[in-house]
## 1
Amino acid sequence: MKTAWNDLRAVVGAGHVRAGSELDAVDVFIPQMVVEPANAEEIAHALKIATDAGLRVIPCGGTTKRDWGNPLRHDGQSGELILSTRRSNRVVEHAWGDMTATVEAGCTFQQLQKTLAEHGQRLALDPLWPERATIGGILATNDSGPLRIRFGSLRDLIIGITLALPDGTLAKSGGKVVKNVAGYDLPKLATGSLGTLGMITQAIFRLHPIPRETRTLSFASSEGLTSGRESLHDLVLAIQDCNMVPTGVQMRAASSPTENELHEVDVRFEGTTAGCEAQIEQTLRMASGARRIEAPADVWNARSTLWTGVEPSAICKFSLVPTEIASFLGLIRKVSRSPSLHWRLVAQAVGVGLLRLEGNDNATLLSALEDLRKQVESRGGSLVILRCPLEIKSKMDVWGSASDALPLMKSIKARFDPRGTLNPGRFVGGI
Amino acid sequence: MEARILDQFRAIVGRGLITETSQLHTYECDGLTNFRVLPQAVLLPALTAEVQAIVQICQREKIPFVARGSGTGLSGGALPVDKGIVISLARMNRILEVDLLNARVVAEPGVINADVTQRVAPHGYFYAPDPSSQSVCSIGGNVAENSGGAHCLKYGFTTTHVLALEVVLPDGSIVHLGSRALDRPGYDLPGIFVGSEGTLGIATKVVLRIVKKPAVIQTLLAAFNTTEEAGAAVSGIIGAGMLPAAIEMMDNLAIQAAEASVHAGYPDCGGLLLVELDGPAAEVEHLIEEVSAICTQCGAWEIRVAQSEAERAVFWKGRKAAFAAMGRISPNYIVQDGVIPRTALPKVLSEIERMSAAAGLRVANVFHAGDGNLHPLVLYDGRIAGQEERAMELSINILRLCVQCGGSITGEHGVGEEKKMMMGEMFAEPDLATMQLVRCAFDPEQLSNPGKVFPRTRFCAERTGPYQPHPLEVAGVAQFF
Ligand SMILES: Cc1cc2nc3c(=O)[nH]c(=O)nc-3n(C[C@H](O)[C@H](O)[C@H](O)COP(=O)(O)OP(=O)(O)OC[C@H]3O[C@@H](n4cnc5c(N)ncnc54)[C@H](O)[C@@H]3O)c2cc1C
């Protein structure tokens, strides 16, 4: 193992290998080393050294989502290291005429958007913590926000990828053109794989223009999203079932000490002034029963506010078909009634959202989560725990039950990472 | 094929087993008719369980199989393989469920693409991927090829619209990839299955996403003297921050062929653009004016905006018929499917013109201009000795040109049998070896459509090697892409 550390120093430079500290902990686990290669070749090389020496590798970008996933499986014998993309952070090319951009994994989302904005373009995605989150980390966790209703998620925006495999192979797939069906679509396979197949070193995206005009409308109801004759949930469904093209439709809800939960809905339109205005008018007509409110500042970033509050807490990502959101709210209400839990959620109309649960102790949180997951899965959805106390993580798989495709996923993992170098145990079904 | 095995097949599909040579000929090729292989047998299952039972026998007896939809593929994807059978999904053609509130449709693989839209149109929805062959091609074939169409510029390709699949894997097991709800935890298996050209198993059920029809659609036709001028207009439109539903271009030869065949009433010009905008009325009305102004600035001398649904259909008729129309102006032709970064269009078109003159063969150009997907049609006369070979060479050289410009050898037709030798020009050896890892995970014995897509068969026991630079990188032509 000692020679491996020396080899790593030789590849990335001694100044870019340091001992892990508490600040680098993944859950509570402190890796021995943190290695920061400068580019794709160094990343691939470092991976190979680690694999050959039987070391485990935790890929890392901006560290904003470092705790996502199950606890690392470690045997106490093999060493572990963080391989950081932080230094490999260039926007390699902005082909604005072609509306594509090539970017290294360690580039922060904000930096990328700033560069693209110089030519009036953007990556049409709104991930969490854009100032710190890196492209590699956003891809590995498949994070997406409200823009999804119009532009899809990362799988619809990524067109090319370079992956460093545990054996040191650097492999490209996809390309620089939006339309391309040559070979298997590895960009999609890598998206959301939590760094378990290879390290993303570079990605290519299709871009969209920055809209000429953006307008947001917000509505509130204290009767609840789902009750009342003209419920906000019905409004959300109706907006999706008409021919308007919003670029955000989200519901915000929270438990309340009094009986009346407060529910809010935000709708956003982008495009020409005339187009926005016509759609706003149409929405106001449809929402004649709802109370219009001033849109809170930064409302499209509401997801990130779920990360602060009373502890202990658990933050989950849920996914259901859109019509099930109403009954999901009913479920939350039920599991949080006795013993009493507080909750807040931000749900996108497409059926994906984040939920924060706050409890008095871990045990009540755990049983509420188990209950909710059972119900969500029985409706064909999923409930993934993004953050919770370690005690809960050790008792409950954060991903939920895997489908009958788990053996297939495991065999993909075994082909890409036969020695189990990358993030062992942290992904679905113990992958 | 041994009688013992045929008996087993017959026990599964009864009269859905074809072994008569005269009938087998129907299945010896797909839309790319210059490759032909006679299959040992063709099976037409009606249920997932039957597909599974067939594949289990193939697995046990090591018989390679090729799935087939409507056989309209243009890269030899459904071409039978030596000593193999064809599994036709044509009988599995039911739409199983329509869930309008969630905009989902569950279809069997043999459902015809256009039938999905027809089914949901009364409710104001449509199925967005619209290959020109949509009135005949199947959802299963679309899934396998990740098919596109004119409107994919705005709406995305098949992969954007497939949420989940039921698949019979080459080992005979049934698995469910993805889910009706988004973001199922785990690897994005629908993402990897869509576009895998029948090499990872057989799709037996597909959950599709449907889209609400836009409030209004407006289609504009503009005539330019040259394709360069038309290309400049495309750049102008995109540069102005618009995302039209479709931007299609045709050159003079393609226009002549379309006119001869369907009389679309196109102006006789050097470059024709069809631009379709859709969305809220207030927006479309405003933007169509802008498009019109950009076209005029770039030299358009005739601009028409379709005034009715009927007129719009006529605008599209010529474009959709363009491939078939080539028969009117040439005895034979080869369709290609290269992609280039849109900005390389003027350079590539003039280079194609030069290559065409050098080869002494005419090339007609039809393309999805918005996303840089070219369909050069190389015209030749197969009765003249040597012309076919020269036409093949020219079409391959056009693809090389696309790769050199940072593009791709295929935008929607797939690699199949036809372009597998070109894969090595677009990807380096480690890239292909890595894709092969996926193949080996799904199909370690390579029974599902073997020999397609990849330039050589690689045994799944082989390991990948370390990074080697791509030939184009060494030559300094391209960096990582
Ligand atoms: C005139 C014409 C115009 C065309 N225009 C377009 C166009 O605009 N855009 C475009 O993208 N394509 C176009 N095509 C090509 C072709 O129509 C598409 O590739 C289509 O998706 C093929 O569907 P199919 O049902 O005919 O499949 P087939 O040709 O039968 O098969 C295609 C591939 O799919 C596999 N396959 C079929 N069913 C399954 C299944 N259930 N599970 C797994 N694999 C399966 C086969 O093995 C094969 O590899 C055109 C073709 C023609 C002839």
Note: Chain A has a mean pLDDT of 93.
## 2
Amino acid sequence: MQMPSPNPAILARKQALAARLLKALPPDAVIQDEMETRAYECDALTAYKCPPLLAVLPRTTQEVSDILRICHEEGVPVVPRGAGTSLAGGALPTADCVILGVARMNEVLETDYENRIIRVQTGRTNLSVSGAVEEEEFFYAPDPSSQLACAIAGNIAMNSGGAHCLKYGVTTNNLMGVTMVMMDGTVVEIGGAHLDAGELDLLGVICGSEGQLGVVTEATLRILRKPEGARPVLIGYDSNEVAGACVSDIIKAGVLPVAIEFMDRPCIEACEAFAKAGYPMCEALLIVEVEGSEEEILHQLGLIIDIARSHNPVELREAGDAEEAGRIWLGRKSAFGAMGQINDYMCLDGTIPVSSLPFVLRRIGEMSQEFGLDVANVFHAGDGNMHPLILFDANKPGDLETCEAFGAEILKLCVEAGGCLTGEHGVGIEKRDLMLHQYTAEDLEAQLKIKDVFDPKWLLNPAKVFPLSVTEGRRSMALAAE
Amino acid sequence: MKMMTPQSEAELAEIIAGASGPLCIQGGGTRGRTVEGDVLSTCSLTGVELYEPGALTLVVKAGTPVAEVEALLAAENQRLAFEPMDHRGLLGTEGEPTIGGVIAANVSGPRRIQTGAARDHLLGVRFVDGSGQAVKNGGRVMKNVTGYDLVKLLCGAHGALGVLTEVSLKVLPRAEAMATVAVADVGLNQAVAAMSASLGSPYDVTGAAYDPDSKTAFVRVEGFADSVSYRSKKLAAELAGFGETSISAEGEPLWQGIRDVSAFHGREGDVWRISVKPSDAVELAPRLEAEALQFDWGGGLIWARVAEGNDLRARVNVPGHATLVRASAGTRSRLGVFQPQPGLLAAISEGLRRQFDPKGIFNPGLMG
Ligand SMILES: Cc1cc2nc3c(=O)[nH]c(=O)nc-3n(C[C@H](O)[C@H](O)[C@H](O)COP(=O)(O)OP(=O)(O)OC[C@H]3O[C@@H](n4cnc5c(N)ncnc54)[C@H](O)[C@@H]3O)c2cc1C
């Protein structure tokens, strides 16, 4: 992975910069020791590592503003960081950057059940947002599998999704307002407890901008009342095609499950070996979950089961009680862990039109032969968001490179099928160089124009999202202006 | 003043590249005339590019009439879930609303509180920027975080950043049944509390509106027939403490009326649309000194009909925004259609407009 070479003038000023930051911040907020900065050298895309120049851990919006103002004046790049669970290298430092971690900013600022919102500092973890409103039977809907660890900050930056977004939408559909610090230290308030923008929808473009437009310190989030109940059904088929047709028929029938998860045979086998959930051995498994009162659940499951039967399933398992429901989810929820047990793996995140599912899965199978690496597929079938997991051996020379090449081919395939490079993990550095497969240079130029307005010096989260060749001119102009 | 109706995106791009004066961007022109200048209409850019009911996706050219889109979806038992308003009755305009106009103005109806706004159903756009460059953003799939989300930014930009030529939408199943729970004889305070209680219930409410004239709050549920019957009964029981409740299954015209603010049709005065935190509506309403009011979104959307020429924004003392939807040309230019943003945000928005429309020709003066 090519990264711009660090600016030697900045590296030489490390002490002076640390001293300036220490004047503005409490002593424990600035981390300069090389042993300690190493903790920030990578996110969950661990194949790439680079310790930052410094790390800072502010507690308030004011402190974030001071940090950014200083870095802006000094011309030092800043990489915002939440919990560091990005799978795209979104929080990967450069050697000449300051990592700005919001993990200490984890307070609930306001809960308002009457207006169904919660306002939090963005370092708060996703699951603990729901935790804060659980008492009153409310929850925050977007539920990435990493929800125990990942922060709202990263969720907003990546516009993260989750298993239940077929019904509830992703982060952008549940985000109502932010407090954001611009690179020059100014603080802006966008949106709030009211709905929609009165002028341009700035919130819409900030969500998903991967930390490149500003540092989000507080967020107003929509909370929802929990449904009365929820229950999954497990359906097994002996071909991916048939499972795909079943998904399409369920949707066409007007049932809108909260989740439709799909696993292929390699994934089922791995999960079974790891979690022993008692899954049937077949080519494709669907887990379909519905919500509502007992009667509503039974009615929806009835419709789904009728449709499933019409496609001749090899297995159809209803959950009689909570324990059985838990078992149905068990294997799916441990899919990543299971993969981690057998092997190193790379988790991809392309989206395809649901209708091209069988074709794409067949092609991935063929490519798996060509590249000589196994791949298991687990994904959110209702919305076409695939997570192929490519298995490789990090200790075997060349295996990572083969895996990356294979991954790139799968993502290009997703684009060719009418989909996109990333459905919820973000571009980061991982998919940066593939962007020209999905967009033309002109399409990307329109996106760069946004960055120009928010961060004219191009200091925030450098070298992510866009191919370096595309941003070259802007980066060198900004540098020359320093 | 010319009227230009390009037949293709390429032709549209050529016109924009060659233009130097103000352009009034229009779809069907039903949402009122925006600015003085040559009219650039998308009404000839029509047609369905792709419709996959099993994937809940529709890709359609921007000038396609909304009625055509709705008929197409209805044939597959689907719909635009965000329930876009038809402005013709309120504004006294004629013509055919286009899907591009709906998206450019982020037009959403009562169901916005549950399913989201137009922007939440928009998956991708094609547009031509102010230099004549065609740009694509987003796509046709439901989940897509590839690069910056210009899709949301263009939705609701009222043409100021680009002229939409194609939009991809998420569509949803049409509900099998619907019921409305009415709570009779409640004041605004009680009505907002009742709507809040229903929106905070597990019964998946898809509409919560209040009519101060009849002093009635309306709460809607939709879905499969048995489920609707179950949930409406539960709601009626839970709301009984606020006022006398009744359940009706014939709510279609009622909700269409709320969506289109039909109570204001043909009545004189300026019309404002105000978005606030629902509970703020209670204190705000009397301050507006309105001739008539209507409340939607659990109280968070206030429609106000006021005497001509008054600056209602001066009376709004809570966070949110007020848009002048109907007024004379003079009042519109004097008060501005959109609520001015605080300084820093205004500078960002202005910066974006300059980037995307360097000649300043798209609906100049409408925003900012
Ligand atoms: C096991 C596992 C499962 C996962 N499952 C899912 C899933 O189901 N769905 C899904 O969508 N993702 C998933 N992810 C990916 C990841 O958890 C999400 O992208 C998450 O939102 C990242 O949050 P974070 O706080 O860890 O952010 P980080 O990794 O710290 O940062 C992510 C990005 O956000 C930026 N950023 C961080 N803080 C700020 C801030 N304050 N202001 C501006 N920008 C900021 C960073 O610069 C970076 O670009 C998974 C990851 C793992 C490891």
Note: Chain B has a mean pLDDT of 96.
